[in-house]
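dumping this here so i dont lose it again. seq + smiles for 2-acetamido-2-deoxy-beta-D-glucopyranose
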Amino acid sequence: MKKISLGALLIVLVSLVPRSSDARFQVCKPSGKIKGTKPPPGKCVEDNDSFCCIPGKLYPTYKCSPPVSGTTKAILTLNSFEKGGDGGVPSKCDKKYHSDDTPVIALSTGWYNGGRRCFQNITISSNGQMVNAMVVDERDSTTGCDEEHDYQPPFANNIVDATRAVWKALGVPMNDWGELDITWSDS
Ligand SMILES: *[C@@H]1O[C@H](CO)[C@@H](O)[C@H](O)[C@H]1NC(C)=O
Ligand SMILES: *[C@@H]1O[C@H](CO)[C@@H](O)[C@H](O)[C@H]1NC(C)=O
């Protein structure tokens, strides 16, 4: 009898645990990992805060990003979306380049959401300043450390990669451009 009532108690307890499908309890877990390989001679180009994969080091990959709310935490980074800029290739949403004087951004894979945020605007906030910026590109958190990605690691899953126009609009002094904690929401 004792055993049965203990079992019943366990069932009651388990049914009280929130379902993992509940958005508030969603956690973004790695989808895999990539091992860094030694880039061929001369293939590792490190500039402007970009670093090549370290041979043997494991890098987690993510198909998801943290859940989006009215104040989604992210890391703001700086990039050029112009031809010949750091980005290298045209933006994924429209296969075009964009002036660094326009407020455009790229989002980590989960937030990019298979292109469903393309041309949508998000509101970026930091230090009491706000700017609207348009999504035009993805920062891939699912692959990296290969020729296609300049032997650089997969991106983090919480990146908002922005033009200088965004950094200017947030009032960040140029000397501090690089990485910044921000929050964002869909506009
Ligand atoms: C590095 O950043 C500077 C300043 O934003 C830029 O002028 C330069 O073109 C960048 N380097 C590359 C290789 O894109
Ligand atoms: C995003 O903002 C730009 C510039 O303000 C505007 O032209 C565009 O229509 C907006 N996109 C959407 C989907 O509202």
